[in-house]
Write a structure and sequence with these properties.
Elements (H helix, E strand, L loop, with lengths): L1 E5 L6 E5 L5 H13 L4 E5 L6 H10 L7 E4 L6 H4 L9
Parallel strand pairs: 2-3, 2-4
Antiparallel strand pairs: 1-3
Length: 90
């Protein structure tokens, strides 16, 4: 899994996409978070090639400090959020 943490402090928002080539689609979300100084992380997770890692991402999201997950192309948007430990389940 490729990961980039952007901004100062622990990431509050996770942006995940299916491959690096999806960055052109997801970059705008990162730019808005930067504009508002929201620390976030960017991960590459593929629902098709990395289903276990993708589900682990959802399971570990809350303990990693994530409050929001933005799921883009190549990531089944509901999969990270379906974990009982994801930020959505609060």
């Amino acid at each position: 899994m490729s990961e980039r943490v952007l901004g100062e402090g622990s990431a509050l928002v996770g942006i995940c996409m299916g491959s690096d080539s999806d960055w052109s689609t997801m970059q705008a979300a990162s730019e808005v978070l930067d504009e508002f100084s929201v620390p976030h992380r960017v991960d590459v997770l593929s629902a098709h090639r990395m289903p276990t890692e993708m589900l682990d991402y959802g399971k570990q999201a809350r303990s990693a400090g994530l409050r929001v997950i933005i799921a883009g192309p190549g990531v089944l948007p509901t999969c990270p959020a379906c974990s009982p430990r994801s930020p959505r389940s609060r």
